[in-house]
Amino acid sequence: MFEQIINVDRMEQAVSLFGSFDENIKMIEKRFNVSVSNRDELIKISGSEKNTTLAQQSIEALIAIAEKGEQIIPQNVNYVMDMAFENN
């Protein structure tokens, strides 16, 4: 089991990232077969090394979208996951 930790600067970013009823994170967990948890400003990703890295790249891209003040919607989540796959 491999783990990655991402530090989120503002709680609003984490709220936007996770989405309503955690729908955005559930999409990432399902696609990459990882587990994602949030405690305070830390997001922990667990799974295989490759999938954890892909999930981390996707989450970091979504955080960048949230930092710009844009809303994270399922289309954004699918896009960044597709980009993570293409880049690896």
Please give a structural write-up:
This protein has 88 residues and is of the alpha+beta class. It has helices at 11-18, 23-32, 49-67, 74-87; strands at 2-7, 35-39, 42-47. It is globular and about 30 Å long. The model has no long low-confidence stretch (mean pLDDT 93). A three-stranded antiparallel β-sheet has the order 1-3-2. Helix content is 58%, strand content 19%. The chain starts with a strand and ends with a helix.
Task: Please describe the structure with a list of short key phrases separated by commas or semicolons.
88 residues, 58% helix
Mean pLDDT equals: 93
Please give the count of helices: 4
Secondary structural class: alpha+beta
**Shape call:** globular
Query: Helix-strand pattern, N to C?
Result: EHHEEHH
Uncertain segments? none
Strands of the widest sheet, in order across it, are 1-3-2
Q: Rounded to an integer, what's the Rg over CA atoms?
A: 12 Å
Structure summary:
The chain has 88 residues and is α+β, with helices and mostly antiparallel strands.
Write the layout of secondary structure elements.
Blueprint: E1 2-7, H1 11-18, H2 23-32, E2 35-39, E3 42-47, H3 49-67, H4 74-87
Antiparallel strand pairs: 1-3, 2-3
Helix pairs in contact: 1-3, 2-4, 3-4
